[in-house]
Amino acid sequence: SALIHPRLTYILGIVWDIIRNKSFYYNVDIDGRDYSGDYSMIVCFNGNCMGGNVFPVPHARPDDGQLEIVFFKKTSMFRKLSGLGHFSKGQLDKLKDCVFTAAGRNVTICCKNDFVINADGEGLSSKDGKASIRLLPSKLNFIVPEGVEFIQ
Question: 56: Cβ–Cβ under 8 A, 6 or more apart, which residues?
């Protein structure tokens, strides 16, 4: 058995990142639009759930042809901690001072520092400080019973 419950490790990881409070300058391009700036985290969503019980972008759908990208601006550790509840409930409108969103199909991120990419719980290191995330249409098939829809 694990020494620490898996849900607790997830929460501890988030709290550790907030306490470290690192941010870097990222060159970000989304479908030809420039979103470059100082960010502590950039998250791309193809669905509305993160970690099983966190719903930061409740309108995100895996079948709408768009990635939802959430940018966390450089801000204080205390602001991040105080905003964690709003983030987990999808109340991003209450975080306008430190969070904003964009949508698109092709995301390119470059940074002078190598950075970690978390893909569905797996940590990957960027190659040469670069990452490309693309939404490929019709690559993931969903099989659901007749009459079932994604949760609104």
Answer: 43, 45, 50, 70, 87, 88, 90, 92
Residue 150: closest CA among 88, 60, 56: 60
The residue with greater pLDDT, 117 or 89, is 89
**How far is residue 28 from each of residues 37, 42, 102, 137, measured CA to CA in Å?**
8, 10, 11, 22
> Quick one: tokens of 136?
């490929």
Are β-strands 24-30 and 33-34 bridged in parallel, bridged antiparallel, or unpaired? Answer: antiparallel
Which residue, 71, 131, 85, 70, is CA-closest to 106? 131
Comparison of pLDDT for 118 and 125, the residue scoring more? 125
Mean of the per-residue pLDDT values of the chain: 84
Q: What's the CA gap between 152 and 150, in Å, rounded?
A: 6
Tokens standing for residue 86:
């709003």
